[in-house]
Amino acid sequence: MSIVGKLAPISSRMTIADGVYQQLRDALMVGRFDPGQTLTISSLATTFGTSHMPVREALRRLAAENALEVSSGGSAGVPAVSVERLDDLCRARVVVEGLATELATERMTTAALIELETIVAEHEALSDEKHVYDMLDRNRAFHFAIYRQSGSEVLLQIIDSLWLRYGPYMRMLSTHIAPQLETGLHEPFTHHHHLIIGAMRQGDAATAKREMVADIDGTLGLLRQLCESSARR
After folding, report:
1. Residue 12 scores a pLDDT above 70
2. Which helix (H) or strand (E) holds 210?
3. What sequence ranges are listed for the domain HTH gntR-type (predicted)?
4. Residues 64 and 98 in one domain
5. Same structural domain for residues 60 and 165?
């Protein structure tokens, strides 16, 4: 997969190493790299227009977060997918994201609800326009707008780490969705999002949590099928 055009030159407002790290991290989280794909220092340095050092540092930091697997030669690989790893990640997601949703419901404001409704509308519009990565980015924005509202820095950090490790499965999801978008057969994954907003508007933390768990489990069911299909090839 070519990443040219997906990554941008580094702004002078941040260090080069931080800029490389942040762009790679964002790209991994929304699934812009294939499971098992090798990322070489040389190719990334050329893409970013930097020396090897900031790329090497970024890959080291991402490996420390379990987002990449670094080889002895310095290149890095996107982790392979498996049903076992997927189930493990989703078990953790259900626990921490469910709790964050409960806490967020108790702290929800009118302004935050309007933000959530806006994000959902943008998500659905992007589905109509067949922009798969932008659509998945709006999905992420919806979730994290809720989790930030929880007021828990610790939960937010844990969730962020889990989503980063979930990246290879987002790649599988985008690959599955893209052809459906082109034919108009894809229905955006926003059904539970609307129900979450409705529950939060009523201050019903238990229902909001239940719908968040259902949202995670619904995607899990599809991804399990994709993982099993991939393993049979």
Report:
1. no
2. helix 205-232
3. 14-83
4. no
5. no
* Main-chain phi, psi angles of 101, to 5 degrees: -65, -40
Task: Give me the torsion for CA of 110, 115, 116, 122, rounded to 10°.
Answer: 150
pLDDT, one tens digit per residue, over 136-178 is 889 999 999 999 999 999 999 999 999 999 999 999 998 888 7
In whole angstroms, give the CA distance from residue 117 to residue 96.
23
Closest listed residue to residue 196, CA positions, set 156, 128, 143: 143
**Last residue of some domain: 78, 112, 129?**
78
User: Can you give the pTM of this predicted structure?
Assistant: 0.87
pLDDT in tens, 200-210: 999 999 999 99
For 31, list phi and psi in degrees, rounded to 5: 80, 40
Which residue bears the tokens 């099928």? 225
